[in-house]
Amino acid sequence: MTAKKTAEHEKKPAKASSAEKAAPKEEKKAEQAAVNIGMVGHVDHGKTSLTQALTGKWTETHSEELKRGISIRLGYADTTFYKCPRCKGSEAYTIKPACTACNSKAEKLRTVSFVDAPGHETLLTTMLSGAALMQGAVLVIAANEPCPQPQTTEHLVALKIAGIKNIVVAQNKIDLADKKQALENQRQIKEFLKANGFENAPIVPVAAHLGINVDLLIEAIEKTIPTPSFEKNKPLKAYCIRSFDVNKPGIEINDLKGGVIGGSIIEGMIKIGDTVEITPGIEGKPMQTTVKSLNCAAGKLNEAGPGGLIGIGTTLDPSLTQNDRMRGQVIAQPGLMPLPTKKVFLKMTFIERLIANVDKRVRTNDVLVLTVGAMTALGTMIKEKGSVLEIDLKTPAVIEKGEKIAVSRKEGGRWRLIGYATPEK
After folding, report:
1. Domains along the chain with CATH numbers
2. How far apart are CA 372 and CA 403, in angstroms?
3. Cα-based distances in Å from 423 to 366, 407, 415
4. pLDDT, tens digit, for every residue of 233-268?
5. Shortest CA distance to 348 belongs to which of 401, 416, 405, 410?
6. Among the listed residues 207, 210, 218, 202, the one whose alpha carbon sits nearest the alpha carbon of residue 96
7. Cα–Cα separations (whole angstroms), residue 317 to 286, 375, 397
8. What DSSP designation does 98 have?
9. Coil, strand or helix at 115
10. Collapsing DSSP states into helix, strand and coil, what is residue 277?
């Protein structure tokens, strides 16, 4: 054998052994979103269009949403923010791995999840339940309308009740307003924010459907809404906002999969094989189930923590999870949550600016909607003692000590947010 042939022979890779061939390829670990950011504001101000501009996903997928042209359910969409190391200013920010200005490789910042809340007045309770999942928010305000509109106010107050302090204002539809109108609208926005304690929130003019100033908005989000320090070492607590049956019609009994619950972890961790409790359960009876699978928008997980929407495969009968039957339930470590109850005593705090033209008292037999975490519970006021209301709920709810509960009452044919309450007993 010549020296040349010997060298070529030595360069040839060694054949893989049978053990190496049999070894499974290491599966790429999916990455959860680091933070949930609400997309809130008045109906038709462009929340879903802006979510699409930031994520590439249209969140209105329900048939009734497509027919009516409005969001009805909470929408979820994940995106990853990048920053170009070469470019300066806002143009360095993008949702693409390559810089859109100079085509250089961009550095990954973080993955975030947007919660697109419906803005229609009849869907306020859905927005309130979504606020329980948010750690920051983008408040969308149309530049071609006076500010504030009714749901602009209600949504901002809902964020305050949920304890959300970090918001960015997207002054959308800037292409539909002339310079004078846009500047006047911005002045109104600043007054509105100051009146509600958000005077330091940045205001970014955008045109969502044209993709104008999306980079500026990403920059503002990155600088204003930090990734929270989640309590991963605490016991598991998560809110369920979706549930469904993944089995196709005609499937064999032996091939049936358990029901899937979708939600967001507030604190703690969950992993495959864990036993979790779902409460208040069915008719006030909590249920326990085993975690069979975990998924996020990016793929499969072995364990999950706070951030983004998590799909949890369970051993539950799929008939219990179909059509969002588990929406509003708490997913927790067994024995962690208080027992479900139908009778609650609440200390009420009215929000004057929301009820300026309506009765400021809750009277006996008034029907109220309580938003407890991600659950909406219908209740009737039985009696009042000072500022404490005794309320009978139609279905059981789980209420924690010190929890803030949004209270809505029907006024003029729609549910209006009138204040918040905390449990007295």
Report:
1. 35-224 (3.40.50.300), 237-332 (2.40.30.10), 341-423 (2.40.30.10)
2. 8
3. 18, 12, 22
4. 899 999 999 999 999 988 888 899 999 999 999 999
5. 405
6. 218
7. 14, 21, 22
8. B
9. strand
10. strand
Pairing of strands 341-350, 414-423: antiparallel
Q: Which two tokens stand for residue 101?
A: 């200005």
The pLDDT value given to residue 362: 82
How many whole angstroms separate alpha carbon 282 and alpha carbon 126? 21
* Strand bridging mode 310-313 / 293-296: antiparallel
Q: Is the peptide bond before 280 cis (omega within 30 degrees of 0)?
A: yes
- Note the pLDDT of residue 399: 95
Do the bridges between strand 293-296 and strand 167-172 make them parallel or antiparallel, or are there none, so unpaired? unpaired
| For helices 47-55 and 214-224, angle between their N-to-C axes, nearest 10 degrees | 90
Alpha helices in 171-300, H assignment, sequence order: 179-195, 214-224
Q: Which of 164, 186, 132, 142 is nearest to 43 (CA)?
A: 142
Which helix (H) or strand (E) is 94 found in, with range? strand 93-94
Helix, strand or coil for residue 370?
strand
**pLDDT band, very low/low/confident/very high, at 30 (cuts 50, 70, 90):** confident
Place of tokens 């993955």: 111
Whether 392 and 379 have beta carbons less than 8 Å apart is answered as: yes
Q: Give the dihedral sign, CA 142/145/146/150.
A: negative
Distance CA 309, CA 262 (A): 7
Count of positions (residues) in the chain? 425
Give me the residue label for tokens 């500026």: 216
Residues 6+ apart with CB under 8 A from 118: 43, 70, 71, 72, 73, 74, 126, 127
Residue 26: pLDDT over 80: no
Cα dihedral across residues 220, 221, 225, 229: positive or negative: negative
Residue 197 tokens read as 């304690």
SS3 348: strand
Question: Please, are residues 417 and 408 in contact by the beta-carbon 8 Å criterion?
Answer: yes
* Cross-strand pairs, 116: 39, 75
User: Tell me, what amino acid is at 342?
Assistant: K
Q: Which of 151, 140, 297 is nearest to 209 (CA)?
A: 140
Tell me the H-state helices in 274-407: 318-321
